[in-house]
Amino acid sequence: MSQEKPPVVTPVRVVIAFCLVAPFVAMLWVGSYARTEPVLIGIPFFYWYQMLWVVLSTALTMLAYRLWHRDQRARASRDGGAER
Predict the structure, then answer these.
(1) 3-state secondary structure the chain
(2) Sign of the CA dihedral 7, 10, 12, 15?
(3) Where are the transmembrane segments (predicted)?
(4) Whole-structure pTM value
């Protein structure tokens, strides 16, 4: 009797990947933020945009971490507690 394994790529894992890749894409696409306008509290866009991504990256990494653990717990309970 063959037991069907759950798919490796699931919607939750796609969201996790997006959360982890988005900051890299945002920072590597320098042309999108290589300017001085708009200025926020006297700080040119180039600088405050990057500082904003520090906070956003932290939030996205925390979200990815929580989603990963939730996914792992769901898989373990579905597989009868087997470790992967």
Answers:
(1) CCCCCCCCCCHHHHHHHHHHHHHHHHHHCHHHCCCCCCCECCECHHHHHHHHHHHHHHHHHHHHHHHHHHHHHHHHHHCCCCCC
(2) positive
(3) 12-34, 46-68
(4) 0.80
Q: Is the dihedral of CA 37, 39, 43, 49 positive or negative?
A: negative
Residue 6: the pLDDT is: 67
> What is the pLDDT, as a whole number, of residue 82?
54
Low-confidence ranges of the chain (pLDDT < 70): 1-3, 6, 81-84
Q: Give which of 4, 8, 5 is closest to 71, Cα–Cα.
A: 8
Of 43, 21, 45, nearest in space to 35 by CA? 45
